[in-house]
């Protein structure tokens, strides 16, 4: 596998465009379109929130029932959530307009929205934006980047990753983009993710690969404990790499899953590190657990702890908060066997051994915790399983951003 500079246009046959439709923002682009020159197999995973936005309901139906997909239309600023039949109708209107402009079937169009809940979409602005984007579709790196920027809300950076690998003597590419900064919590988190590949792969294995991978990537991040109404990850495969179609779990499937995992992991980490108001990516590795499931529960418990997140913001090695978060996770373990280490680009320092603080330097610990990416490694010393979760520190700016989000 090789990491390359790219996004959703990196795989063969994928084009992108963006525009400023004026949906909510007055000074920036707020719509994006991804288009494949040939029909794609489609897979998707969606929010577990009982309150599901209209685009989630619409896309679940398309992914399940449509034979192929060729385009995705995304808007930022308004979530089209809690909007009833009118909101669902706007999903249909969006798909109908895109289908007409691109000369494809209506059920070959997926839609996604992100932004304020409860507001109706200005459908005329969306339709005008579709007209513009359909004429400006491009396979350039810049088109992909601008599309990634257009779907941002409170994000401070765009999030894109691409890789290549060899399958059946052909070069296969996987490229993705996502948005997410707040209302991010495990179990599909407000995040939108779009991953494109030119791999030839069956729809069944495409869905299986995505469903399995989100458990170790997007479902292992948390910014603020809120699971959104709009969470969506879409994976489209157009087969233009011309590799022998992957129809069984062979070596090519393993390589595809590895590439997909890399893309999803990296953009998931970008979301966690770009949490609203955040100054640091906070990674929690739990090792030595009795099972992977227990390791996941333990790591997510720590990464979701508001007190621990605040300590990371203060560069304070307040290890008691981490041990406490492990303790209320619901997993049974012996606290007198736990070891804890902090790591960053500035070095590594052991904080506790066998559940008790060692003689460490607070100044050294603060220096290590002052980096833009910090890791806490908790060794439970009870088995061989491990898992990693990602989050961010909790800052004053998180409250400021969310206190006036609508205004």
TrEMBL record:
<feature type="active site" description="Nucleophile">
    <location>
        <position position="190"/>
    </location>
</feature>
<keyword id="KW-0068">Autocatalytic cleavage</keyword>
<dbReference type="InterPro" id="IPR016117">
    <property type="entry name" value="ArgJ-like_dom_sf"/>
</dbReference>
<feature type="binding site">
    <location>
        <position position="190"/>
    </location>
    <ligand>
        <name>substrate</name>
    </ligand>
</feature>
<comment type="pathway">
    <text>Amino-acid biosynthesis; L-arginine biosynthesis; N(2)-acetyl-L-ornithine from L-glutamate: step 1/4.</text>
</comment>
<feature type="binding site">
    <location>
        <position position="402"/>
    </location>
    <ligand>
        <name>substrate</name>
    </ligand>
</feature>
<comment type="pathway">
    <text>Amino-acid biosynthesis; L-arginine biosynthesis; L-ornithine and N-acetyl-L-glutamate from L-glutamate and N(2)-acetyl-L-ornithine (cyclic): step 1/1.</text>
</comment>
<feature type="binding site">
    <location>
        <position position="179"/>
    </location>
    <ligand>
        <name>substrate</name>
    </ligand>
</feature>
<dbReference type="Pfam" id="PF01960">
    <property type="entry name" value="ArgJ"/>
</dbReference>
<comment type="function">
    <text>Catalyzes two activities which are involved in the cyclic version of arginine biosynthesis: the synthesis of N-acetylglutamate from glutamate and acetyl-CoA as the acetyl donor, and of ornithine by transacetylation between N(2)-acetylornithine and glutamate.</text>
</comment>
<comment type="similarity">
    <text>Belongs to the ArgJ family.</text>
</comment>
<protein>
    <recommendedName>
        <fullName>Arginine biosynthesis bifunctional protein ArgJ</fullName>
        <ecNumber>2.3.1.35</ecNumber>
        <ecNumber>2.3.1.1</ecNumber>
    </recommendedName>
</protein>
<keyword id="KW-0511">Multifunctional enzyme</keyword>
<feature type="site" description="Involved in the stabilization of negative charge on the oxyanion by the formation of the oxyanion hole">
    <location>
        <position position="115"/>
    </location>
</feature>
<comment type="subunit">
    <text>Heterotetramer of two alpha and two beta chains.</text>
</comment>
<dbReference type="InterPro" id="IPR042195">
    <property type="entry name" value="ArgJ_beta_C"/>
</dbReference>
<keyword id="KW-0028">Amino-acid biosynthesis</keyword>
<feature type="binding site">
    <location>
        <position position="153"/>
    </location>
    <ligand>
        <name>substrate</name>
    </ligand>
</feature>
<keyword id="KW-0012">Acyltransferase</keyword>
<keyword id="KW-0055">Arginine biosynthesis</keyword>
<dbReference type="GO" id="GO:0004358">
    <property type="term" value="F:L-glutamate N-acetyltransferase activity, acting on acetyl-L-ornithine as donor"/>
</dbReference>
<feature type="site" description="Involved in the stabilization of negative charge on the oxyanion by the formation of the oxyanion hole">
    <location>
        <position position="114"/>
    </location>
</feature>
<feature type="binding site">
    <location>
        <position position="407"/>
    </location>
    <ligand>
        <name>substrate</name>
    </ligand>
</feature>
<dbReference type="InterPro" id="IPR002813">
    <property type="entry name" value="Arg_biosynth_ArgJ"/>
</dbReference>
<feature type="binding site">
    <location>
        <position position="276"/>
    </location>
    <ligand>
        <name>substrate</name>
    </ligand>
</feature>
<keyword id="KW-0963">Cytoplasm</keyword>
<keyword id="KW-0808">Transferase</keyword>
């Amino acid at each position: 596998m090789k990491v390359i500079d790219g996004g959703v246009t990196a795989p063969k046959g994928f084009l992108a465009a963006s525009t400023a439709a004026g949906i909510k923002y007055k000074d920036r682009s707020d719509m994006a379109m991804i288009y494949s020159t040939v029909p794609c197999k489609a897979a998707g995973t969606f929010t577990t929130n009982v309150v599901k936005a209209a685009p989630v309901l619409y896309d679940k139906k398309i992914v399940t029932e449509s034979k192929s997909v060729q385009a995705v239309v995304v808007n930022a600023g308004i979530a089209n959530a809690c909007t009833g039949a009118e909101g669902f109708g706007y999903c249909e209107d969006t798909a109908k307009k895109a289908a007409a402009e691109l000369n494809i079937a209506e059920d070959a169009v997926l839609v996604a929205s992100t932004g304020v809940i409860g507001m109706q979409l200005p459908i005329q602005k969306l339709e005008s934006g579709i007209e513009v984007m359909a004429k400006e579709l491009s396979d350039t790196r810049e088109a992909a980047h601008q599309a990634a920027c257009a779907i941002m809300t409170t994000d401070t950076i765009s999030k894109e990753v691409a890789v290549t690998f060899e399958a059946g003597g052909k070069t296969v590419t996987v490229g993705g983009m996502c948005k997410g900064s707040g209302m991010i919590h495990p179990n599909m988190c407000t995040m939108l993710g779009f991953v494109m590949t030119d791999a030839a792969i069956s729809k069944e294995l495409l869905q299986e690969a995505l469903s399995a991978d989100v458990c170790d990537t997007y479902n292992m991040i948390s910014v603020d404990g809120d699971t959104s109404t709009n969470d969506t990850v879409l994976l489209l495969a157009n087969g233009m790499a011309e590799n022998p179609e992957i129809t069984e779990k062979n070596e090519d499937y393993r390589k595809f899953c590895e590439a997909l995992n890399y893309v999803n992991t990296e953009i998931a980490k970008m979301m966690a590190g770009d949490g609203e108001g955040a100054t640091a990516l906070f990674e929690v590795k739990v090792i030595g657990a009795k099972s992977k499931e227990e390791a996941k529960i333990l790591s997510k418990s720590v990464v979701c702890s508001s007190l621990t997140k605040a300590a990371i913001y203060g560069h304070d090695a307040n290890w008691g908060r981490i041990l406490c978060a492990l303790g209320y996770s619901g997993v049974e373990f012996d606290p007198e066997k736990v070891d804890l280490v902090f790591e960053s680009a500035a070095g590594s320092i052991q904080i506790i051994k066998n559940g008790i603080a060692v003689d460490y330097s607070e100044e050294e610990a603060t220096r290590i915790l002052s980096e833009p990416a910090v890791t806490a490694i908790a060794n439970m010393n009870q088995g061989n399983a491990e898992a990693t979760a990602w989050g961010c520190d909790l800052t004053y700016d998180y409250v400021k951003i969310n206190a006036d989000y609508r205004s």
